[in-house]
Amino acid sequence: MKLARIQFRGSPRWGIVDGDDIYAVKGSVYGEFTRGTRLCSVARAKLLAPAEPTIIVACGLNYMGEIKHLGAAIPKEPSLFFKPPTTVLDPGVTIPYPRLTNSLSHEAELCCVMKTTCRYVSEKDALKYVLGYTCGNDIGMMDILAQDNKLITRAKGFDMSSALGPWLETDLDPTNLAIKGIVNGKVIQDSNTREMLFSAAFILSYISQFMTLRPGDVVFTGTPENGHYPIKIGDVMEVDIEGIGRLTTPVGPKI
């Protein structure tokens, strides 16, 4: 099932995507729900990021190709950092080129959006707490990060740096999905989630041992090789994940 979050008659609303149409959600996506009446066509819908996070957790150095490419040591446990909710960017919305950087980067990632409160869960059960999966672009200011890894909050936590969408896929096996990062129509990242060092289930379980993930929270699971591709004003970034779809993010001028 595909779940979309849309702007409908002035308010955010969840809907069920069925073919070319979007139908109302009767109930809560974080609990029990059924399909209601037709709201609009997909073509006419104003899509919003399919998440309502109180916190976003991201995992770095999680694809073996990227680890080898960077010449980094293989992590013994997930390398995590946080991104605030103000980083969320709706699908198709233009991100202004940040004034603090001359080295913007694009990182295609599979993201988990939580359905229920997740605390002290096992790896075996972790995916039961996921509402669905979506495409994510972990946009970064790499020249700032290159100065000092301790500046990761500044480099990755700036406004609009977490593009999400276009919707959630609820029925998906996250362990074997083709994932691509695309800039101006050119594929710059081409991998599969089976190349992850730590699976989505392991990451969720690991996080849950020391902090609570709440309904609507987002977990980025890492980016494949060549994720630090330089982005210019006027570029169009895309993330394409098998079984989900394609997330598009144009890049505007500095403001």
Structural class: mainly beta
Number of helical segments with 4 or more residues: 4
Residue share in helix: 10-25%
In what range is the share of β-strand residues? 35-45%
List the helices and strands and how they pair.
Elements: E1 2-8, E2 11-18, E3 21-27, E4 33-41, E5 46-48, E6 56-60, H1 64-70, E7 79-83, E8 88-89, E9 95-96, E10 104-106, E11 108-114, E12 130-138, E13 140-141, H2 142-147, H3 152-156, E14 162-169, E15 178-183, E16 186-192, H4 200-208, E17 218-220, E18 229-231, E19 236-241, E20 245-252
Parallel strand pairs: 6-17, 8-14, 9-20
Antiparallel strand pairs: 1-2, 1-5, 1-14, 2-3, 3-4, 6-7, 10-13, 10-18, 11-12, 11-17, 12-14, 15-16, 15-19, 19-20
Question: What would a concise description of this structure say?
Answer:
This protein is mainly beta and 255 residues long.
What does this molecule look like?
Helix content is 11%, strand content 43%. The chain contains four helices and 20 strands. The longest helix has 9 residues, at 200-208. The protein is globular and about 50 Å long. The termini are far apart.
Highlighted features:
single chain, mainly beta, five-stranded mixed beta sheet, about 45% strand
